[in-house]
Amino acid sequence: MKTETRSEQFHPPSVIGNILRKLHIDIPLFIGLSLISLLSFIILYSAGSQDMDVLIRQAARVGLAFLLMTALAHVDPYQFKRYSALLFGLGILLLVAVLVMGQFGKGAQRWLDLGFFRFQPSEMIKITTPMMVAWYLAEHALPPKPKQLLIASILIIVPTLLIAKQPDLGTALLVASSGAAVLFFAGLSWRFMLAISTVLAGLTPILWHFMRPYQRDRVLTFLNPEADPLGRGYHIIQSKIAIGSGGIYGKGWLGSTQSELDFLPESSTDFIFAVFAEEFGLFGCLGLLSLYLLIISRCLYIASQAQDTYSRLLASSLAFTFFVYVFVNIGMVIGVLPVVGVPLPLISYGGTSIVTLLAGFGILMSIHTHKKFLPHS
Amino acid sequence: MSRIYTIKNKLVESRLFLNRIIAAFIVVLLLTSGLIIRLVYLQIVGHEHYATLAKDNSIKIEPLVPTRGIIYDRHGKVLADNTQSFSLELIPEQISDLNDTLLRLQKLLNISDEKIDQYQKQRKRQKRFVSTPLLISMTDEEIAKFAVVRPYFPGVDIQARLVRHYPYAELASHVVGYVGRINEAEMKSLPIAEYRGSSHVGKIGIENTYETELHGKTGYAEIETNVQARAINTVNSVPPVAGENLYLTLDIDLQKTAYDALGTFNGAVVAIDIKTGGVLVFASRPGFDPNPFVIGIANDAYQALQSSENQPLYNRALRGLYPPGSTIKPFIALAGLEYNAINAEHKLFCPGYYQLPNVSHHYRDWKKGGHGSVNITEAITQSCDVYFYSLASMLGIDRMHSFLQHFGFGEKSGIDLSGEKPGLLPSREWKRSQRNQSWYPGETLITGIGQGFLQVTPIQLAKATATLANKGNIVTPFLVKNTVNPNPIEPDTERPPSNITVKPENISSIISAMVNVIHDPHGTAKSIGKDINYQIAGKTGTAQVFNIKQDAKYNENDIDFKLRDHALFISFAPADDPKIAVAVIVENGGHGGSVAAPIAGQVIKQFLGGNNENRNP
């Protein structure tokens, strides 16, 4: 035992690597996340009218998020499993609390004011939902039987509806997909997935038939934003102009004219990818997508190496949900998906989503660095 | 057997899982390829098309700022309007060296560093092509100076803007409030789209409470612009909707009378139209000139206001906390009658002090030697303290607390101004939870004469007086009568009163005692009752600022002005059909009867059309 430790100390690739390993940090993932965060600062400086204050605030949030990630990486994955149901229940309670309070204060309410800080329960539920579903399914043999499928579906639908009622469709979509991802990785049969899709597709015309004209109008604008050039469509049109005018090589850093001239709304938040594409062109976009792919691949690898069912399901769901984030945001900005309020992960300005994302990566690192026995290589 | 089954199952599970990971990875790759195809389509195939759109002509959406609503008093006199003013504005995008330009401008026009800082802060929040003001309300001299050298300052220009103006300055500052530049915190809470073109927002007073109504709706113009972002054609526009004009219930002339009557004293006067709840006078002296706040008050001027001993920024009428002193006595007396602790005939001998059983402490009367034998009417008329010590002792703090609560003591009056203080109506529970102490009998006594923990605001006192005059039907004060432009909102003259059930004969006894305060030869405010053909009901009060030691002799000439008693007066008139209720608090005024009552007298006489002319030769 002693000799083993000594021999390990004998071949340190680097001092930093050793420290990171002691901190339970996964080095490839850490490098990928750091690169993306760096890129975020570069593009935010340009998109946020070159205001240093914006950068400083973002840096503080990112720093905090990295700390949380490190802290979670330290926790034994068994603890996540143990508290899954408790955390999920707490999240649901908080969501209900937010809704009830929203009834008293008018309008949309997503925040829970705890006096010393404000907290968005829907962010917490993004992680606790896959935790809960993974925990439930891991208790039974896989692939899930119809009864377990039904209960798992309820576990997903309840938080989704609560968030959709806030109303925050973007987050509701992400929560639903994180839960669905767990079902997929648990081995839900392809035939069943096909059947569900067919039923949903078949229901659409029936639903359409019962809708009132104004409701149909809304659906149409949702699907085809260009039909509403002053409202939602305005974002998409301007965003496409920004991306297209960037060309292959882009206009260079700080060279974005569309966001600069205020043509591009929400240039620091949901539509930041348009600024990026305008300034760095197709090459830049390919680079960014590669970076995202590297992170996702590493996460899927971590999932494949996980040693128990719960860890596998949770890790793979977190990895896949991260991709859904990227896909939904970029798809919306380049005009192939409807506009829903989902930020570009790790790049968009704003604190809560970064904290949640890095918390997820902290869990992945914890799963990877707390192996009970070493795999034979 | 089952063990083998599980192991086998685990193997199946992990194979299944690996398959799913691979499937997921393929899905990721396929979808990413989809994104890349779309990007290639936009950035290579469509590049020329989009580049042309971006470069040549583009549609830009410009906000059209609505005109802020005007605030009038009840007779249509303007309390806040918008005046044309010229400002020096910079467009950062068109200036090659911004710092150099700012330095040159600073030298030319003597601009303070503070204004430069303020400008820099505002500029950073804006896009680089937005024109941002450096100087607001330029003088003719400044305009002339800049006009000469204008060609040397590309990107700098003089713009005409509308600036909020308050013609009555300090007179109505605590009611109307003021607008100021939008700060960072407000930036976050205000609706971005609505405030895209606005630079100012209501900070306090009516300007703040009715911000949404006054601001109006921002419109948009779609402007076709060329490569220099210069407008060449307006394609389409949605005009702005001007803010609504507000008519207040305030009577600015009456307000002026009250404000002037306070003279050199600090204090507050609040008058309420009893029939409606409309606030006629809401004066807090000293006020301050809100106009400098609109253009951004200079730091030293602000510091001077902040550190002034008289606290002109402090809204005494809304937030000032004072012990009510003897003005609480009519309410305590009414409580006594309602709870049958006493009846109207009940007499008590006042020797000039009161003692609790087995306690040596003398609770003294303001009149040395006492009032002799008094009934409730005489006790109110002459403001006999001993009578009320005794009555308070009979009622007890619990009953006093619940009765006074009905009249709105200890809670916000509900007036449409933000920042109101609720005052303090003490109770056993309050003292237990706030101070962790039990309630002492002596505290009940001093609460009975409006001293001790009890604290009221002037608006609260006016509301309670109006409610008493209204036979116990609660009067809720409000300031905005109606809005006129563009659509008149139905004027809220009649607000449904919620009622306190008190016996009419009890109210009548109290009111007749309050009439005696002014019209009886022994009344403490008899000076204001002359030359009028109706009756005023009132009650004087004197609130101690500090406690006199048991054996010390009180001589008001000896003590420092700041430690002199506050003078209070509550009143309403005409006594038989009350129309107006007035509460007056004069800080360090000494006696309610001689200092506070005449102020209320002037307000009432002007409102009811008494012989006001005769008083001012």
Polypeptide structure, described:
The complex is a heterodimer of chains A (377) and B (617). Chain A has 377 residues and is mainly α. Chain A has one domain. Chain A contains 14 helices and 2 strands; from the N terminus they run αααααββααααααααα. Chain A has a two-stranded antiparallel sheet with strand order 1-2. The two termini of chain A are 19 Å apart. The N terminus of chain A is likely disordered. Chain B has 3 domains: 54 residues; 188 residues, Penicillin-binding protein 2a (Domain 2) (Alpha-Beta Complex); 350 residues, Beta-lactamase (3-Layer(aba) Sandwich), CATH 3.40.710.10. Helices cover 39% and strands 18% of the residues of chain B. Chain B contains 22 helices and 20 strands. In chain B, strands 2, 3, 4, 5, 10 and 17 form a 6-stranded mixed beta sheet that branches. A 5-stranded antiparallel beta sheet of chain B has the order 12-11-20-19-18. A 3-stranded antiparallel beta sheet of chain B has the order 1-8-9. In chain B, β2 and β3 form a beta hairpin. Chain B is elongated, with a radius of gyration of 34 Å. Classes of the chains: A mainly alpha (377), B alpha+beta (617). Chains A and B meet through α11, α12 and α13 of A and α1, α2 and β1 of B.
Can you lay out the helices and strands and say which pair or pack?
The complex is a heterodimer of chains A (377) and B (617).
Chain A: H1 2-10, H2 15-22, H3 27-47, H4 52-74, H5 77-104, E1 112-113, E2 118-119, H6 121-138, H7 146-164, H8 169-185, H9 190-210, H10 213-223, H11 232-246, H12 272-305, H13 309-333, H14 351-369
Antiparallel strand pairs in A: 1-2
Helix pairs in contact in A: 3-4, 3-12, 4-14, 5-6, 5-7, 6-7, 6-8, 6-13, 6-14, 7-8, 8-13, 11-12, 12-13, 12-14, 13-14
Chain B: H1 2-45, H2 47-55, E1 58-64, E2 71-72, E3 78-90, H3 98-109, H4 113-125, E4 132-135, H5 140-149, E5 156-165, H6 173-176, E6 178-181, H7 184-189, E7 200-204, H8 205-209, H9 211-215, E8 219-225, E9 231-238, E10 246-248, H10 252-261, E11 267-273, E12 279-285, H11 291-295, H12 299-307, H13 316-319, H14 329-338, E13 348-350, E14 353-354, E15 363-364, E16 372-374, H15 376-381, H16 385-406, H17 428-435, H18 441-448, H19 458-469, E17 480-483, H20 504-519, E18 537-543, E19 566-573, E20 580-586, H21 592-608, H22 612-615
Parallel strand pairs in B: 2-10
Antiparallel strand pairs in B: 1-8, 2-3, 3-4, 3-5, 6-7, 8-9, 10-17, 11-12, 11-20, 13-16, 14-15, 18-19, 19-20
Helix pairs in contact in B: 1-2, 10-21, 14-16, 14-20, 16-18
